[in-house]
Amino acid sequence: MNFVVRSKSSGNEYNVQVYSTDDGPVITCDCPAGENGQYCKHRFALISGDEREVVEADAQVREIAALVAGSR
Asked: What is the number of structural domains in the chain?
């Protein structure tokens, strides 16, 4: 799943990718925090179901909750 999310603070747009691996779900973001392995508000917003800043998507945000349910 691919999402383009607009940052509330800067207005920049970032790409968030969500996919499954044998070890569980993976969610990446190309914002500066996400690329440095730090807390990324864009990933957590999508995980919590917040779709207000989604600019473009190839899936529904609610699909993320089903993917991460029960994961570490």
From this structure: 1
